[in-house]
Design a protein that fits this description.
Blueprint (H helix, E strand, L loop, with lengths): L2 H20 L2 H17 L1 H5 L3 H25 L15 H8 L4 H12 L4 H8 L3 H23 L1
């Protein structure tokens, strides 16, 4: 038995399982990857198990990793709020600037900078390609810079 065979059979479902537990598909993939790293370290144990037992081992390991991650997160101090932009803009000014953008551009910027979502997570929510999200994000930032520059003049 080789780990890559287990990986090809179980990775997607294990990733979705962990993602549902954590509420984040990206974090679910991280947990699934860590699970398979542990599987590589315990290949002798896994080789002695039946297919059903191997699957149980993988899901139990993933569940334990999720619990460990949630415990660590609960113990972390709350993050200090960082300014969204390096300039001296207040949050109200930022919101007003975002209102001057097309709705989809403003939405992507809010998801990225207010909610802290990455392009893959935004793409899943908006049902679009991550590359499209990155392009729209870059265009929105350029448009915001243009608006700020026009306002300063």
């Amino acid at each position: 038995m080789e780990v890559y065979k287990l990986y090809s059979v179980h990775f997607q479902a294990l990733s979705a399982y962990a993602g549902k537990l954590l509420g984040s598909n990206g974090s679910g993939e991280d947990i699934a990857q860590e699970t398979f790293l542990r599987a590589m370290r315990h290949i002798d144990t896994l080789s002695a198990l039946t297919e059903g037992q191997q699957k149980t081992w993988l899901y139990t390991t993933a569940r334990r990793l999720v619990i460990d991650q949630q415990r660590r997160k609960a113990l972390e101090p709350p993050p200090e709020e960082e300014p969204i932009f390096q300039d001296d803009l207040t949050r109200l000014e930022v919101v007003q600037l975002l209102d001057r953008l097309p709705l989809d551009s403003a939405q992507i910027l809010r998801m990225r900078h207010f909610a802290g979502m990455n392009s893959t997570e935004i793409a899943r929510v908006l049902q679009m390609n991550p590359a499209t999200v990155r392009t729209k994000l870059r265009s929105a930032i350029q448009r915001l810079q243009q608006i700020i520059h026009e306002t300063e003049e």
